[in-house]
Design brief:
The complex is a heterodimer of chains A (229) and B (155). With 229 residues, chain A is α+β, with helices and mostly antiparallel strands. Helices cover 38% and strands 23% of the residues of chain A. The N and C termini of chain A lie far apart (59 Å). In chain B, 88% of the residues lie in helices and 0% in strands. In chain B, 32% of the residues are buried. Classes of the chains: A alpha+beta (229), B mainly alpha (155).
């Protein structure tokens, strides 16, 4: 009995630490995405570049993959002309869905054929999601308070999405940076120039404004995601 | 009183007088409690209730440990041991919190987060040295035969 207690005193603290850190690490880690090959990238761009009035069937693409989501941003003359999300079973299906939504946008529909040809397409394939800070029971209970607000996501690599009643909306990594949403807080009054921390309230409002959600998402409905751009 | 109990009682009284560790530990507890209180109040004030409550357990429990150590007697010894154990439990919870936060950083930030996690290990080592060492050795002393004698508890 005494020996068992002694063993427990020596082993239990280390075991608790290993288990707690392992759970939290794997809950928040998004493995680096498997990059698409050049053939897959060419296929996606070919689908997106096809004229919206072209009724010919799309060229055969790679074998279908698990449900895929991608976001297409069209850049024209250095500005964002429009963006659309596409969902489907596989890259080709998702690209077709995105294309249908993209060319219906008023700003893009108004572009001339020359402008459309010159426009650049940025495609972000959503690859992996994870909780956003306060969203995991063990982290919420034990972590140093304020850490999830200050260091919520990996800037430039991760975006923030929302899921409301089965519907999704996404803010891409470059949109978070461009919108100055990642350095919104002043953690120290003594250092007013030091800005750090995500403005989750504003991000939730922006996601609601995407149109598909229907309402402003709650903090627990937000998540992090990585993209293969 | 039997003749054989007198020398034992005298020996016990002499042992209590000679063991200065009670006063050393008590004095250290008072100093450390004051330092913790000043540091938490002035240097690292925290606006989060859970963190604030956790941090303030350190000076408060250390002060209770000081009171038990200096008051003496079996009751004082018991109070000091319980307070020391509570202090060690609080330090362990702090170490778990730091480890969980380091795991979060390592998970979110990859290689950069792993560097931050390594720094967290350094913080844990400092916390063990600065906060956990005193209650650790003090509780060990209080539970030792010398500690029991110093507080008039049968060894």
């Amino acid at each position: 009995m005494k020996r068992g207690l002694r063993l427990a005193v020596w082993i239990a603290p280390s075991a608790i630490l290993v288990v707690a850190t392992s759970i939290v690490f794997h809950a928040f880690r998004i493995p680096p995405p498997a990059r698409l090959g050049s053939a897959e990238r060419d296929q996606v761009i070919a689908v997106l570049r096809r004229s919206p009035v072209d009724a010919a069937p799309p060229p055969a693409g790679p074998a279908p993959t698990p449900p895929t989501t991608l976001v297409v941003t069209m850049w024209s003359a250095g500005r964002t002309a429009g963006r659309a999300e596409g969902h489907g079973a596989g890259l080709t299906a998702a690209a077709l869905d995105a294309r249908a939504a993209l060319y219906q946008l008023p700003k893009i529909a108004a572009l001339s054929p020359d402008d459309l040809r010159a426009a650049r397409l940025q495609v972000d394939v959503i690859a992996g999601t994870a909780p956003l800070g306060a969203g995991h029971w063990l982290f919420d209970t034990l972590a140093i308070p304020g850490l999830s607000d200050m260091l919520a996501i990996n800037p430039g690599l991760e975006g923030i999405g929302a899921e409301v009643d089965g519907k999704h909306a996404y803010l891409l990594p470059h949109e978070l940076v461009a919108g100055r949403l990642l350095t919104a807080k002043r953690p120290s009054e003594a250092l007013p120039d030091f800005a750090m921390g995500v403005d989750l309230k504003r991000i939730a409002q922006l996601l609601a404004g995407r149109g598909s959600l229907g309402r402003t998402p709650r903090p627990d409905e937000l998540f992090r995601f990585r993209t293969d751009s | 009183m039997t003749p054989t109990s007198e020398p034992e009682g005298a020996r016990a009284a002499v042992a209590r007088r000679r063991d200065a560790r009670r006063w050393i530990y008590g004095g250290l507890d008072v100093v450390f409690a004051a330092v913790y209180a000043v540091v938490i109040w002035k240097v690292i004030p925290n606006r989060y209730p859970s963190a604030s409550i956790h941090l303030w357990t350190f000076p408060i429990v250390t002060a209770v440990m000081a009171a038990g150590t200096l008051l003496g007697g079996p009751r004082g010894r018991r109070v000091a041991i319980v307070a020391g154990s509570v202090m060690l439990a609080s330090v362990f919870v702090l170490i778990v919190r730091i480890a969980v936060s380091a795991a979060f950083l390592a998970g979110v930030y990859g290689a950069f987060g792993q560097a931050a996690a390594t720094f967290a290990l350094v913080m844990v080592a400092l916390i063990v040295e600065i906060v956990a060492l005193l209650p650790l050795v003090q509780v060990k002393y209080l539970r030792s035969p010398a500690g029991r004698r110093a507080y008039g508890v049968r060894a």
